[in-house]
Amino acid sequence: MDQTSNQRAKYFISKPIDQFFIGVYDISKFVVQFFREVFAPPYEYQEVVKQCYHVGYKSLSLITLTAFITGIVFTDHSRPALADFGATSWLPSLTGIAIVKALAPLITSLICAGKVGSQIGAELGSMKVTEQIDAMEVSAINPFKFLVVTRVLATTFMVPLLTLYSAFIGLTGSFLDVHGKDQTSLTAFIHDAFFKIGYAEILSTLIRSIMFGFTIGIVGCYKGFTTSQGTEGVGRAANSSVVIIMFLVFIEEMVVVKFFNPLYMQ
Amino acid sequence: MIVMDNDKHTHNNNREVVISIKGLYKSFEDNDVLQGIDFELHKGENVVVLGRSGSGKSVLIKIISGLMKPDKGVVKVLGKEVHRLTKKELIDLRLKIGFLFQHSALYDSMTVKENLEFPLKRNVKDISQEQIDKAVKEVLEAVGLADTADQMPTELSGGQQKRIGIARTIIMKPEIILYDEPTSGLDPLTSYEINDLINEVQHKSKASSIIITHDLTCAKKTGDRILMLIDGKFVRQGNFEEVFDTKDERVKGFYDYNFIE
Ligand SMILES: Nc1ncnc2c1ncn2[C@@H]1O[C@H](COP(=O)(O)OP(=O)(O)OP(=O)(O)O)[C@@H](O)[C@H]1O
Ligand SMILES: [Mg+2]
User: Alpha helix locations (H) across B27-186?
Assistant: First the structure.
């Protein structure tokens, strides 16, 4: 990897704007390289499994806690609004839609951004500044394949799974709240909650969470791989990974909900 | 002023050239680091590169191994022009080059043993676990750290890390070895052993090496030929005595401020 490629002396427009477009160009190249290398053997199965385990292990407890609390709190906050219309029986349906379609994918990907994205950025960043990535390269091992491809695959695979899990936990929280206050039975809750949720909704959630997972892996790896300026740079890589991932997750969410969902829903 | 040791030179001419560099230039923005390097390394030869901190020694070997691109110049390793190779060709070439990083660059998420196995497992087809274990044991014994196999690199001292770095460099039995300051941060006794090890590797496996160092004892003990890198050029070359037999203050200073023997 040429270590001087991101040093440019002159600016076309102004430094920040140029840097933004250079960043977009570099990250696109990074994504293209990912797709080129992911299909070419040899495959690092073991390392992918190990990374999947790390992603799940690191975020599971926090996702459980957050999803559960969100389920309860969201249900509780929605109750008065429905009560005004005497429509509290609609609560399970409302929370079902909100959790499965919006909250679960967002909560999961934001937590993974903080827990996993930053960790990938910091880990690869410190490997970069201590020349471990160069060491792999000179020992004829492809660091992109071993470090980037495995981590991106792991997040792309695990975030959807964790999203389904957090939807389940969120609905559990919601059920406990509804059951406690309105004595709704479990079968009635399930029936109502999934009344408005079909395959299309679940598919949309899965597709978005696959995108979020991919974003988390790619941005964390990109920031780590392009770290410079010693240990201070490592902190910056971790930090900017989280910021960029969160920003992109919301943009992607909006784009999919506003432009793609209308195409096949209704 | 360049001292050419004629005897040694004619002798060298009969030997195969494994690294050849012509007109090499490298700058970082307005920092001109290498300014016209010409150099040949012959088969079985140990060449020591001396130079002050920041003179571009590490940059030179990073260019040789293809980690950095030169601005100008031709770098040939084992007859192949490093910066014009395809990915596949570069991988094949790198299997024949060992690289010891200045700060060891051990993989800190792996144990010492996993660090050593890593290049073997990935690059040598159909190697059995037994063969791997044997190779690991062999290099660990060579660097005198046989009992650290299951430790993490962060649990080792800087000098021990350096020695594991050397073990990882020689485990693939490379034809060319680039040592970046193999003895820095080591006590005199360990340095002595490392110098012996470098010479032993040279004799046993007929490897050719470039050894970057500040340590004149190391230079004297391991170098068949010594090059002095000053202001981006090799200003002197020859054996130890020849290089320092000069009135050039920049070279003499290097000797005078170094305590040896
Ligand atoms: N990636 C890089 N980007 C910008 N400048 C660099 C880079 N690598 C090295 N340099 C510069 O090149 C010069 C030579 O660096 P190099 O690491 O080769 O020195 P050295 O001779 O190995 O010194 P030391 O003995 O301290 O290790 C230094 O001035 C350094 O700042
Ligand atoms: Mg150096």
Answer: 57-64, 87-94, 112-123, 129-142, 158-170
pLDDT at site A264: 63
Mean pLDDT computed over A63-72: 96
Residue B188: phi and psi, rounded to 5, are -55, -40
CB contact under 8 A, B105 and A132: yes
Identify whether the C-beta of residue B59 lies closer than 8 Å to the C-beta of residue B78: no
Q: Does A229 touch chain B (CB under 8 A)?
A: no
What is chain A's length?
266
Q: Is B62 in the pocket of ligand 1 (CB under 6 A)?
A: no
Put simply, the answer to whether A135 touches B107 (Cβ < 8 Å) is yes
What's the mean pLDDT when you consider all of chain A? Answer: 89
| Chain A residues touching residue B72 (CB < 8 angstroms) | none
Token code pair at residue B247: 């009135």
Chain B residues whose beta carbon lies within 8 Å of the beta carbon of residue A130: 103, 105, 108
Task: Name the helix (H) or strand (E) containing B74.
Answer: strand B72-77
Indicate the helix (H) or strand (E) that contains B30. none
Sheet holding B17-28, edge to edge: B31-42, B17-28, B72-77, B80-81
Judged by DSSP in three states, B80 sits in strand
Question: pTM for the whole thing?
Answer: 0.88
- Cβ-count burial of A199 within 10 angstroms (0-12 exposed, 13-18 middle, 19+ buried)? exposed
B31 CB near ligand 1 (under 6 Å): yes
CATH topology of domain B43-67+86-258: Rossmann fold (3.40.50)
Kindly give the residue spans of alpha helices, DSSP state H, lying in B77-157.
Answer: 87-94, 112-123, 129-142
* Residue B149 scores a pLDDT above 80: yes
Count of Cβ atoms closer than 10 Å to residue A17 Cβ: 11
- If one counts every other C-beta atom within 10 angstroms of the C-beta of residue B201, the result is 22
pLDDT of residue B153: 95
3-state secondary structure of B201: helix
Strand ranges of the sheet holding B233-238, from the earlier edge strand across to the other edge: B97-100, B176-180, B208-213, B46-51, B225-230, B233-238
Q: Does the pLDDT value for residue A9 go beyond 80?
A: no
Protein residue with its CA nearest to atom 27 in ligand 1: B53
Q: What does the angle CA B218 – CA B142 – CA A126 come to, to the nearest 5 degrees?
A: 75
State chain B's maximal CA–CA distance in angstroms.
57
